[in-house]
Amino acid sequence: MDSFKFLTLPNLTTKRLALRQLLPEDDRDLYALRSDDRVNQFIDRPKPASIEEVQAFIQNLNAGVRQREWMYWAIARRTDFRLIGTICLWNIVVETSTAEIGYELIPEAQGQGFMQEALEEVVAFGFQAMNLKKIEAWTHPANTASIRLLEKTGFKVDEQVKAGKPKNTGEQELVTFSLERR
Hints:
Elements: E1 12-13, E2 17-20, H1 27-35, H2 37-40, H3 51-66, E3 71-77, E4 83-93, E5 98-105, H4 114-128, E6 134-139, H5 144-152, E7 156-157, H6 159-163, E8 175-180
Parallel strand pairs: 5-6
Antiparallel strand pairs: 1-2, 2-3, 3-4, 4-5, 6-8, 7-8
């Protein structure tokens, strides 16, 4: 995989969404998203303690984008550009041209096809613009909505990773899905 060809995070659009860089003014919406028990149900991470912590998180994420460590987008409706979720390509391994995808969406926007639109756009970007060969997704086995989304987008359970050392949340192993560029 060649190193990233772009110096800034490209804006991506779908029929209803704008995928854009996180902005300082996203702090309250991102705090609400990352603090929501329903969003965090299957994610092993601490909730942010304050808005200031989220502001530092936004700065860190954008610094990582500038340093080409990951690609991290705010998901916003094109009608108002207000953050309703995030999606990222991270754990990028240049030697194998692979990356992991991660995503989250406010509960009020779930079940409306927004994440499918975002996921398809970011997967296409990863394969076409970043020249990735494989994109992985790790999800909790009880997260049936995420599993359905991945399968609907063409991801399959990755038997090769399954046979190796799985990620562990401390209590339960995660299911690994992957999608290879055609």
